[in-house]
Amino acid sequence: MKKYLLLSVFLCSAVFAQVEHSKGKSAYGFFPGFYIETANFKSDTEGKTRLDVFLKMPYSNIQFIRSGGGFSAKYSVSIAIQDEKKEIIILERRWNEQVSSKDFTEASSKNNFNYSYRTFDLDAGNYNLRCEVIDKDSKKNYVVDLPVRVVQYKKPLQFSDLILASNKVKGDNTKIIPSVSNRTISGKSNINFYYEIYSDAPTDISVEYKVLGSGDRNVHTRIVDLSLKSGRNEIHAELENVGLVLGGYTLIVNMRDKDWKVADNISKKFVSQIFGFPESITDLDKAIEQMTYIASGSQIDSISEVKSFDERLEKYKEFWKRKDPSPNTEENEVLAEYYRRVDYANVNFKHYFDGWRTDMGMIYIILGPPSNVERHPFEYNSKPYEVWDYYDINKRFVFIDQTGFGDYRLLDQQYGDWYRYRQ
């Protein structure tokens, strides 16, 4: 089968076929359907810590229906704070959200989000936070279980947690819009963030801000002097023109005393991504390597062998631009679908190596979800096997687990041509 002919199946295959459903995973791999983040702050209640919980719901993951002159969507949210073993519910909150949009373009945009915020006063300790979101119209639900550590505030000088801000609103009182997803766009960026300092007495300190890239490479450093009052000190900070490329970063805040010793520190990991590209693409070299099922070896080599990161990134973008079926729109549907399949394969088919490299991952990425799946995990006098049928192309693939440890391999050698897409 010609590799370029496989491109067409990315746009015509059903996104939610039996593999997604039967595996019990979101079709978006690791992404649970919404973003959630927690942050510790000192509570006004003596002996307690305030746990703030932020939710960020993409418009594209809730169902809008026509309402009056526009569109509206409704969903419910429930948050349960459980003990670490998930045996006891300590606190619970439930509420409804309603979102309005003036037109369908706004309602379906992947750049629009609805934010929610709740607080919990808790004793210090380890907890599990379970959050469930249910769309009122589609009945689709998303669930996240998140381990949470609640800290204790007893030191003479101590930081709260740090919140990255996607935007801030200045006025009589500066307010921030939390990032929640902790992502920014590559290039020269301003990094806005918020934290609090709790002090037992008025004092002067120095605060050192550092942005570290891969391999703890120092990307940006700034030092500011602060005069603290007794009690709660709210800090709105901004680092200007920080040069970010694709990849992961860590923002570190060190509180230093007059002897330049670190009195306390906090940090926050975040990711710089390419505008319009899937959020899962955080490592350029890995993303290039994963193109093996849609690009020839020479095409991959022509990109990966470029030494300059910026030039390598540009050639990578150019490759996907040529695949874009709708170049005048914001989204490249082929790019998004290809890496969605890579993400799904990594979550569901990982074994001795990454899921995208397995036989099941290879077939899934090339052809998408099968029309039908037959599973035979406990067949008498037979090793475990699965049968994937693709009715639209009249193909059947049989995978057998020869070792009994879930390592399913293609059985029929007549499909040997598929292996040439593997590296």
What is the compact description of this entry?
The chain folds into 3 domains: 3-27 and 284-421, no CATH class; 32-151, Immunoglobulin-like; 155-279, Immunoglobulin-like (Sandwich).
Write the layout of secondary structure elements.
Blueprint: H1 9-12, H2 18-23, E1 35-42, E2 49-58, E3 65-67, E4 70-83, E5 89-101, H3 104-108, E6 113-122, E7 125-135, E8 141-150, E9 157-159, E10 163-169, E11 175-178, E12 183-185, E13 187-199, E14 203-212, E15 218-228, E16 231-244, E17 247-256, E18 262-273, H4 284-289, H5 297-304, H6 309-323, H7 333-348, H8 359-367, E19 372-376, E20 385-390, E21 395-401, E22 408-410
List keywords for this structure.
disordered N terminus, 5-stranded antiparallel β-sheet, alpha+beta, globular, 3 domains, 423 residues, Immunoglobulin-like
Give a verbal description of the structure.
The chain folds into 3 domains: 3-27 and 284-421, no CATH class; 32-151, Immunoglobulin-like (Sandwich); 155-279, Immunoglobulin-like. It has 423 residues and is an alpha+beta fold. Strands 3, 4, 5, 7 and 8 form a 5-stranded antiparallel beta sheet that branches. Strands 9, 10, 11, 13 and 16 form a 5-stranded antiparallel beta sheet that branches. Strands 12-18-17-14-15 form a 5-stranded mixed beta sheet, with no helix packed on it. It has 8 helices and 22 strands. Mean pLDDT is 88; it is low at 1-17, 21-29 and 419-423. Helix 7 (333-348) runs antiparallel to helix 8. The radius of gyration is 25 Å and the shape is globular. Strand 19 and strand 20 form a beta hairpin.
